Amino acid sequence: MTLGRIWPVFFLIGLAACAQGGFSTTDDAVFAPSVDPRGAVVDQLTVGHRLMAAGEYELALSSFSLAAAEQGLTPEVLLSLGSANLALGRLNQAEELLRRASEEAPDSPDAWNNLGVVLIEKGQTAEAAQVFRRAFALDNGESVAIRDNLRLALAKLENSQYGSEIEQEYKLVRRGSSDFLIRPTQ
Fold this sequence. Notes:
Blueprint: H1 3-18, H2 44-53, H3 57-71, H4 75-87, H5 91-104, H6 109-121, H7 125-138, H8 144-159, H9 164-167, E1 170-175, E2 179-184
Antiparallel strand pairs: 1-2
């Protein structure tokens, strides 16, 4: 190697040595902790749930994927992966994972509730109402979130019968300066 190619390396090493603390660490700097090979293993599901609560859905998905590698695709891992995908707006992936979770753990109200949320988001209101009913029954009506989701699905289901055909059968007729009347079209 020639001196022309090596001098930038020496220059950067020299700059690093001139920085505060040189090549050694100082007490006021923030450094990542060292790895203790004898340390306790952290449960990736717990980490993922904490990341979900913090709104870090991509990181939570990565943590749940690590949990899947460690524990396999248990119903809890499937539910967690589906919930993270739901939070990220990946409805098709979330639906597939949550359906598997509800099949493998049919007594889990959380899996059924999250599946219902996916179905509502995808516009499948009738199936979502059935799924929320099942989640509500499994939960014995104790969860406020499931009850509210069931109410929303039932309200959407009742209002879904007003389609564009019915709206087109009426017209707005103006009578006077500020009086309006809705009349059926002939």
